[in-house]
Structure formats: structure tokens, C-alpha cells
Amino acid sequence: MATITPLDHLRSVFTPSAVNNLAHSLNENRTNTQKAIDGLLPTVTAGVINGVSDKDGAKTLYYLLTNTPFATESDIVELIGTGSERQKATESGNGLLKKLYDQRVHQVAQETNQYSGVSLGSATTLTGLVASVLMGFLHKQIVARELTQAQLAAMLHGEVDATRSVIPAMFGVPLAWFIGTAYNPVAQVVPVRQETALASGLLWWQWLLIALGLFLLTLFLLRSCNLNKTTAEQTNDSGMAAATDTVASDLDGNEPQVRTGVDLPGGRKLNIVENSFNYALAMFLATKNGQFPKVFTFDNLTFEPNLAQVTAQARSDVADLIQIMQAYPSLRIRIEGNTDSTGTDATNDPLSSERAEAVKQALIAGGIEPDRIATRERGDTKPVATNETEAGREKNRRIDVVILSLSAPPAGPKVRVAVDAPDGRKLILTDQSFTYQLARFLATKGSRPNKSFLFDELRFDTNTARITPDAQVEVNDLVQIMKTYPKLHIRIVGYTDSVGPESINKPLSAARANFVKVALVKEGINTSRITTGKEGEEEPIATNQTAKGRHRNRRVEIVVTRL
Q1: CA separation, residue 80 to residues 12, 90, 138, 139, 396 (Å)
Q2: Where are the membrane-spanning stretches (predicted)?
Q3: Over the stretch 153-168, which tens digit does the pLDDT of each residue have?
């Protein structure tokens, strides 16, 4: 009998009925609570797995699991129905995460709050509950199977790909430090552009070619049951599988699709569904030092049983992928076809190959060079959901897009771009900067408070609180944003590195936060809209063992407290 995985165990505990009761207990919407749990189960599991990625982390986790007095695993009904038990489990789970990570574990709850719509307090409770149940399971595994530290680490490492593959895409950037994915946002070099860019970017004759290609391909597939498996594989498969880092995008078909503008190189602007496959792909390509290969699930491209047709509903998503590949001419991908477990390998393998080839031909019909697209059959070997239900089998009939390589664009100067603001106004901000991210957040419908932004352009020399000329530009832009959004309230939090005692670092972090506040008030922002905080050397975002890391830790963060 196969050993149950940590993620499988969590799913067996947090069943839909249990989540429904939990939502009622927390006075939360059931759908929002389910969405929060669906995101937290793989995210917290990946966080624990990432915690054992080095020897010190593995040692810490093993110590916690073998020296923490775990009670008999609580029934989920007891955790839901008894406030004291729920509180105890929440505090235990969050406490263990904080001991495993010296970074900002509270960000997991903050991002869950933003992602699902549950309150920050409920998100914190859910994070703690998931962590508590997970840690209890791992403790039980150590005791029952007499696992050593190395065996525990090996067991967890074996689940890394399967776990990361179901993490919501929007967690990839803010929680990269926690789940172990390589996201390093960087300013993208693009010229100043108008907001009235084409929503599609394809001419009528290109659409005709795509439609013709899909029609001919469908006829070909229906008439041929023995399509040769075609690949353009140029890398070692075993090496690829070991190095793959996976992020699956999240798109809930029960909720309205919100389209958002995404900037592409060359001045293009693409309107795509928020948090979809193409959105996650575009965000990844805009980052620096991304690790390859990277896998994304084409979440809006599923198939009917035993068919390999690209549906009419998916054509707009294929068109968006074409535009992204046109904007990144050096991008090379591999399209992997997957099936459910219905049928045998003799039918599933060719079918998965046909599905991958169908997408490839659609891209070629849109003008993408064939040598930039490899294909691969996966059959039913990489399920992302159970094959015991129709809903699960539908998810498994899918396409994965693997990013194989991307040449870095040439470096260039920072540019100023126009960002939408209320009443048809425009904010002119530095592309991809802190203020750019803040303005985009404020302009997004449904944004909630308690969102933290790293003032990345504002860095300090040791023992100083002076604002550099580059940082002054961003301070001026922050003034512009606060005047545009008169109801916006913020909290400015100062941090230091670990050099010096707390008696110096705490006041220094307060001085850094206050310096920014004074600069804003001087420009006419009411002081009642700004509070400050001092964290000293607590919650570092980089190691304090190097000069580069200490420089990153000498920072200021801006928290949106009211909208």
C-alpha cells in the first residue's frame, strides 16, 4: 500500500463538509473559506518542504517534531466546534512555522486574505490550523516509521513537485521565499506607452490562419488514430524532471473572470484574465533570474474525453499565448499533453501526444516558429487531481506549458509609464517600481487593506536615515498617489540589519520610518493618514551574513491600512 503524502493527509482532514463547518464557526463565506483552504494546503506544505532544503533547516524541523509535546491528533470536528481547542491549534501551528522560518511568516496569512477574501484574522487561524495538522502528521510519521532526520528530509523532498504544482499562481511572487520558487521582481525596460493598446494584437488574416489551422488539425486528428509522437526535445528528460519548479495558475470557474492589463516588452499591453495561466506566465517572464524549466498549467484548456480538439472557448487564451511569445522572441517552450486514468497506456499516451501537438499547431498557425515549440506526451503519469471523480478527471485532461529557455533582454534605463487612476486620470510612475505596484493594487477592484509593499528603491547606509535622490523620486510619486486616493491611509515600517544592539537598531528603524513620514507631510499629506512602526533587525528578508544581504535588510515597508 502506498504511503499517504502530507498533502493527501491534509485533504482527508479538511474535507468540503469540514470546511463548511469551519466557515460557519469563523463566520466566513463558505466559498471564500474553501478557496483559502485550497490555497493553504499546498502552500503550507511547500513551506515546510522548503524549510528542509538545507541541512540546518532539516535539523530545525526534525528537532521541532521530535521535541514538541504533540497531543493525540485532534479530530477536525473538535477543532471547529471548540474555540479553545481551535485557538490552541492555531497558536501551535503558527508558532512552529515561526520557529522554522525567521522571515515574515505572517505574509502567508496576508496573501491568503488577499487571495480568498476571508478576513486577515480568519486567514491567520486557517494558516495555524493547517500547519498544526501537518506538523502532527509528520510527528506521527517519525514515531510510527522511526524516521531519521535524513529520511524525513528525503520523504518531504519527494513531494516537492507535486505539492508546488497546485499552489495558486498569485502566491508565487510574494511567497517565493516561503514555498521555494525563484521570483525576483525587476524593472522591465519598455518605452512610455499609451493605455489604448490593442486588446488582441492579431490582424484579421492571422485569426483566419488560426481558425483554418485548427479546422484542418481537427479533421486530421479525427481521421488518424496513429499520429506519430513528435517532439523537439533538446534537453535531458531526467535532468529536466529533477530541476523542474512548478507553479499552477488558479482560475475558479464559479467566479467572474476579471481581466487586467499586463505590460509586455516593446510597448504591448495585453488584457488577460487575472491569475490565469497567461497572467502567471507573463509575470514570470517579467522577472529576473528565473530558474528553468518552469511549468505552468494551461488551466482554461481542458479536453473532452478521448478528444484532442482546442475548443472555441480556449482560442482567446491561445491567442494571448501567441502574443506573449511574439513579445519574447527568444522564448522556447515545451507543450506536455496529459490525460486522465481512463483507458490504457496504449490509448492515453498517443492521446496526450495529440493534445500537445494540437496546441503546437495552433501556435504555429498564429505565426510562432515551429523550432521554438517542443512537445511531449505524459499520458496519465502526472495527475493534478484525483481520478476517482469526474471533476478530477477533467482537471487531469490538460496541457502543461514548460518554459525551457529565455534569453535576457538588454539592460536599459528606467522609464516612466502611465498607470490608470480614478476619474480617468493617469499617474506617471517609474515602471515596475514600488509606487507602480502600489498604484496597480489600488486600481484593482476588490483590493483589501493590510497589503504590504517593499519600498525597494529606498535603501540606507549603515546607521543612517537619509533619503537618496533616486528614493526622493519615489517619495514624490507616493505623494502623488496619496493625493489621488484621498482615503488611503498607510503605515510606514522601518527595519535595520543585525549590526549593532537592539538599543540602537530599534530607534534607528523608527527614525527611518519617520523620515519618510516627514517627507510626505512636508508635501501636504495629512499626518493623520500616516502611522509608523519600528521593527529593528526583526523579520529580515535576506541573510545578515553578507554586505549585500544587510543592505537589503536596511529598508522601509509601506502597509496599506485603509482604502
Answers
A1: 15, 11, 21, 22, 32
A2: 165-183, 203-222
A3: 888 888 888 888 888 8
